[in-house]
Amino acid sequence: MFLVALLNDDYTPMEFVVAIIQEYFNKDRETAMQIMLKVHRDGKGVCGTYSKDIALTKVELVLTHARKAGHPLQCVMEEV
């Protein structure tokens, strides 16, 4: 299994991060806000744990969306 996490940066708007979490990780707004605040405060916030293929797909989708929107948001996966 692999966890998928977002990494903090000084440029991506917090509201964009919340929208990404809601759209790609199926979290309600309150949970998405909590994850976004963890990213902001701790530098990294875990969005979920998935099989390797699903985790890889989520990372690619988030990175593609962020780049198209002009944001440097980083999404990573780590084996657990």
What does this structure look like?
This protein has 80 residues and is of the alpha+beta class. The chain is built from 3 helices and 3 strands. Strands 2-1-3 form a 3-stranded antiparallel beta sheet. Helix 1 packs across helix 2. The longest helix is centred in the C-terminal third of the chain and has 17 residues. It starts with a strand and ends with a strand. The model has no long low-confidence stretch (mean pLDDT 98).
Observed structural traits:
80 residues; alpha+beta; three-stranded antiparallel sheet; 24% strand; globular
Task: Name the structural class.
Answer: alpha+beta
**For the residues shown, what is the average pLDDT?**
98
Helix content bin: 40-55%
What is the number of beta strands? 3
Largest sheet: 3 strands, antiparallel
Task: Write out the strand line-up for the largest beta sheet, numbering strands in chain order.
Answer: 2-1-3
Give, in order, the helices and strands.
EHHEHE
| Radius of gyration from CA coordinates | 11 Å
Q: Report low-confidence residues grouped into runs of 5 or more.
A: none
How far apart are the termini?
A: 6 Å
Shape, per Cα inertia axes: globular
